[in-house]
Amino acid sequence: MIHSILKAYGIADEQSVVEPLVSGLINKTWKVTSAGQDYILQRINHFVFKKPYEVATNIRLVDEYLAQHHPDYLFVAPVKTLSNEDMVYNKDDGYFRMFPYIKGSHTINVVSSPDQAYEAALQFGTFARLLSNFDAEKLHDTIPDFHNLTLRYYQFDDSSKYGNAKRIKRAKAIIEDARKHLHIVEQFETVRLNKRIKRRVMHHDTKISNVLFDEKGKGLCIIDLDTVMPGYFISDVGDMMRTYLSPANEEETDFSKIEVRDDFFRAIVHGYVSSMGNELMPEERDLILYSGWFLIYMQAIRFLADYCNNDAYYGAKYEDHNFVRASNQLILLKRLEEKTDVFEKIIADELKRNNLFTLS
Ligand code: GN1
Ligand code: MG
Questions:
Q1: Where is the signal peptide (predicted)?
Q2: Residues 6+ apart with CB under 8 A from 241
Q3: What are the structural domains, with CATH classification, of the chain?
């Protein structure tokens, strides 16, 4: 199957070595080595990305804009096929794209130092800043309503009423717990109504494995651009908080290991504010801590809804997998909420360091 795809790129069977890479929950990825060249091959999950051509169009528009306005910026655009396409379609296996492998780069799966969190935040902040004059509305919503928390809440609410009855019963306590956080959804509605809070070009999946690092541990560029689409900055900053603050990730079953670390929080804020803080409106700067609540809560109710809906979206490796993931994220949210005063102080410090102010 892979070999017929490689042919479209002019890569011959005999010379190529293809090895699967462990990556996210949605797309499949392989490393391809051929004639001394390395590539990353990715299959788009077209049950999730229903219009793969829109994904390709977004990446092309962003690539063209950056090439024209910021030619020195390292943006990893897909390799073209022999017939100059961004993507290959094969009726049995779906849609594939190939990216050049950036020499000397590596990815990490776990954030183990505040420096790494800082480097990543700087990368995502720089990407957003360089695109702040690009009209985000030119881009397609590659997953419509992807980070629409209000809709996610309704989906969760439906699943908790009409989903798998046995599972709903099992999850009763966390469903009730999740309902107690409705204020996070209400605040999202005020964000949507506030015209000074712009929809920007956002990455929407800022976990650490989507940053390439060089040998010295400096951030090189960002990858996995399928969810690059219009959104609010809280999506990118929030997902960094969700995935960098705790030493234990969403898969952890021992919840006593979930904690939020002050120095990692400062590193995220430092990296993002120093690259993107100037672009943010004061109204947006007021939402930095809210970003974490917003994204962690959204992930919790997405996992919980999926549990009630028989794991239709995320899949599951064991019976209670999505129940455990949802419980985990609700605990992470609590740990973050407990730090409100300390973290507001850190945000104030970092803004001050950059001579920036908020409304409040
Ligand atoms: C999915 O596929 P992956 O792991 O990059 C999901 C994200 C979630 C993440 C949770 C398109 O990302 O929104 O945060 O799982 N992406 C999509 O692990 O739904
Ligand atoms: Mg992804």
A1: none
A2: 260, 265, 268, 291, 292, 295, 296, 336
A3: 2-100 (3.30.200.20), 114-353 (3.90.1200.10)
